[in-house]
Amino acid sequence: MIQLPEKVKWIIQRITDAGYEAYAVGGCIRDSILMRIPDDWDITTSAAPFQVKGIFGHTIDTGIKHGTVTVMVEGEGFEVTTYRIDGEYEDNRHPREVIFTPCLEEDLKRRDFTINAMAYNDGAGLVDLFDGIGDMDRKLIRCVGNPYERFSEDALRIMRSVRFSAQLGYFIEEKTKEAVRLLAPNLVHISAERIQAELVKLVTSSHPRYLHTAYELGITKVILPEFDACMETQQNNPHHCYSVGEHILVSMEAIAADKVLRLAMLFHDMGKPKTATVDGEGISHFYGHPAASEEIARTVLRRLKFDNHTVDQVTRLVRYHDYHVELTQKCVRRAVMKVGEDLFPLFLQVKEADLKAQSSYQRREKEEHLRMVEALYGEVVRQEQCVSLKTLAVSGRDLMEQAGMEPGKKIGEVLGYLLDLVVEDPSQNEKKNLIRKAQRYLKM
């Protein structure tokens, strides 16, 4: 049973009462069949855009050139798009023109995959002209019609094929896969922002390991060649049982489906191909790989136009993912100060995922060490010990008003000195004491 929201039913009914066809279409139908809650509901209709605007009192021309009008219902927007046939594609992404049509079949024929080319309304029921239901039963991602044509029209569909397979746990149908392999180089024409969006959906999916499919089909060679180098780098070391790339894939599946965490695992070892050495006994080593991985992560994330906050969080986790924390509260406090109070809980998750993707060599000892670090961190938090300037008993204003300091960089230097004292010994975190320490430091 596909349950249309009341507002969607109302829109479809209004259009139908006016003498036109209207259906909910695309991903919302697919998700409903899978018993998932759709993110949004798209509606397709035989009514032309100006006719849709005439039916409803409040509309927004969001993409009227391509037939899309947003209908507002009690503050909520629903995209209503006229049946259309896409004209010639000029940039591997957008049609030069669209032709409106009264035929639903023509509209469904232009869509990417069979599972996204189904329509529904309560009167007609499910319209499935390309056996989308059958492909869902077979767990297949298959293009509507000729896959070479679909991917030539819009190269982003190449990434979407792998992304959907990762989200749904489906296989890519063979002819569709052949077309992906042949046309993957066309991804160079797709904007970084679009690539970023699809990559994030893939790595935060239920099956991030399907990034391996993107590697096999030549997609990462275009959008993330740094990953290809990882897939081709072996780790002949007792601590590891996978290539660098396979280790990355397993580690992504071992951590929560959060954007920052999954990206941190994607990049945490990308510096290993650059830093690989082999000793006299044939053992591989990767000295300095965290710094190399951080540099790659920053370069790639900026290339893909990620926001500064994501770049900062991911690169910090990559930088410190291999940081060894000694088993004392003082060392844990220093680790929190170094990694960042905001990121330390994520740092612990990264350490655990990295460990789960290694060999069984010394696994029990490593797991026990991590549990003890977590316990010590829990005590630091419970006792509200100072690990950052945020909880230091003095501020820059205090130093100016009570220690006689002038505004400037020196204040930051003194605050850093005081924080170091407090992290070493939490009992030092008392205002009068820290003012005295600051005055003494200035005299020195």
In total, the number of strands is 13
Low-confidence stretches: none
Shape verdict: globular
- Rg over CA atoms, rounded to whole Å, is 28 Å
Alpha carbon gap, first and last residue? 78 Å
Helix content: 40-55%
Percentage of β-strand residues = 5-15%
Strand-pairing-aware structural class: alpha+beta
- How many helix segments? 23
User: Strand count, sense and closure of the main sheet?
Assistant: 7 strands, mixed
Order of strands in the sheet with the most strands? 3-4-5-2-1-8-9
Describe the structure.
With 444 residues, this protein is an alpha+beta fold. The chain has 23 helices and 13 strands. The protein has helices at residues 6-17, 27-33, 49-55, 104-109, 132-138, 147-153, 156-168, 174-183, 192-203, 211-216, 220-223, 225-231, 244-253, 259-267, 272-275, 289-303, 308-320, 329-339, 344-356, 363-382, 396-402, 409-424, 431-443, and strands spanning 22-25, 42-45, 59-63, 68-73, 76-82, 84-86, 98-100, 119-121, 125-127, 140-141, 171-172, 277-278, 284-285. The strands form four sheets. The chain has a seven-stranded mixed beta sheet. A hairpin with a 2-residue loop joins strand 4 (68-73) and strand 5. It is globular and about 85 Å long. The model has no long low-confidence stretch (mean pLDDT 93).
